[in-house]
Write a structure and sequence with these properties.
With 70 residues, this protein is mostly beta strands. It is built from no helices and six strands. The strands form two sheets. A three-stranded antiparallel beta sheet has the order 1-3-4, with no helix packed on it. Strands 2-5-6 form a three-stranded antiparallel beta sheet, with no helix packed on it.
Length: 70
């Protein structure tokens, strides 16, 4: 299950149109009582969120579309 929101504040980690830097937290994925942080591999701008908050996702499934920074 993917979560794009901070559990403490309820605010999204990122939104469409937002710039991100390499290593920035984008989401968390929880499966079998294990939670894994998803971070940006490179700097860029979030173009599209491909799944809904709370959706189940498969291994290696794309979550966000990020355009690389110039």
């Amino acid at each position: 299950v993917v979560s794009f929101r901070d559990n403490r504040t309820g605010r999204p980690f990122v939104e469409v149109g937002q710039g991100v830097v390499a290593g920035q937290t984008l989401a968390f994925i929880s499966a079998l009582d294990i939670t894994t942080k998803v971070v940006a591999a490179r700097a860029g701008v979030v173009e599209e969120v491909l799944v809904e908050d709370g959706d189940g996702v498969e291994y290696n499934a794309p979550l966000l579309k990020i355009l690389p920074a110039n």
